[in-house]
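Reading group handout, session on sequence-to-structure problems. Before we discuss, look at one worked example. The prompt was deliberately terse, the way you'd type it at a terminal:

> structure Phosphocarrier protein HPr

The input record follows.
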Amino acid sequence: MQESVCRQIVTVKMKEGLHLRPISEIVRIARTYNCEMTISNGDVSGSAKEAFDLLALEAKTDIELVLEASGEDASKLMEEIVQFFESGYKKFEETSDPPE
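And the output record:
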């Protein structure tokens, strides 16, 4: 069986860049799929399932990131993460539970 591999470029639209709250949402989304995703900012890359990896990207507003996913659910995960970035996190922010 051929493994599905997807690649896409997205732009960080979050006003404060990719900080802990949107990173937490990316990790939550990525962990629900049976595949792996790497997010890269230039020479720095990390797993979409690991918050510390994503913090290391230091992705500021208007930075382009490269997403690469492989595995059984790669296209589904790619679609959801691209939608997350295109929304600028707004759609997800509205549905997230507030911090306690």
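Points for discussion. First: Helices lie at 20-30, 51-55, 74-86, 90-95. Second: The chain has a mean pLDDT of 89.
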